[in-house]
Amino acid sequence: MITLNNREKINKSKMRVGRGIGSGKGKTSGRGVKGQKSRSGVAIKSFEGGQMPLYRRLPKRGFNPISNELIAILNLDKIQSYIDKKSINPKEILNSNLLKKLKLINKNSKKLKILGTGEVKEKINIEADLASKSAIEKLEKIGGSIQLKK
């Protein structure tokens, strides 16, 4: 049974090094003999004796969050320019698979977002993951439609 007055000491006092041979940490104060680490004022933080240090062995990742999904963004004026160039047929349903096939958006993008900069003259049906309010308004004004995937 441990009571308050006979338990082991919790706050051990700090070992005072360099206080004579009888203390067990006298003379070289636990630093060994000679060499860089026995001197004062030496800090070898990440030095690993010539081995390639850990911070250089690991890959650099920078500020790119690992979980961010690539979202391809398309403005209405860009869609109109593709229609003018005849890359897109306005009668087809415009979705991310079609745009990836035509190499108009990056093949690694997971989602498609339609933004409302510019105007579209043709009536067009779009299937996207996200869309801005202005893009939806402009498309509905000319009689087009946009389906948002959930």
Please outline the helices and strands.
Layout: H1 54-57, E1 71-75, H2 76-84, E2 93-94, H3 96-101, E3 111-115, E4 125-128, E5 130-131, H4 133-141, E6 145-148
Parallel strand pairs: 1-3, 2-4, 3-5, 4-6
Can you tell me the CATH class of the largest domain? Answer: Alpha Beta
Strand order of the largest sheet: 1-3-5
- Helices and strands, in order, run as HEHEHEEEHE
Helices, by number, come to: 4
The portion of residues assigned to helices is 10-25%
| Cα separation of the termini | 64 Å
| Uncertain regions spanning at least 5 consecutive residues | none
Largest sheet data: 3 strands, parallel
Structural class: alpha/beta
- Strand content bin: 5-15%
Mean pLDDT: 89
Q: Estimate the global geometry from the Cα principal axes.
A: elongated
User: What is the name of the CATH topology of the largest domain?
Assistant: Ribosomal Protein L15, Chain: K, domain 2
Query: How many structural units, i.e. domains?
Result: 2
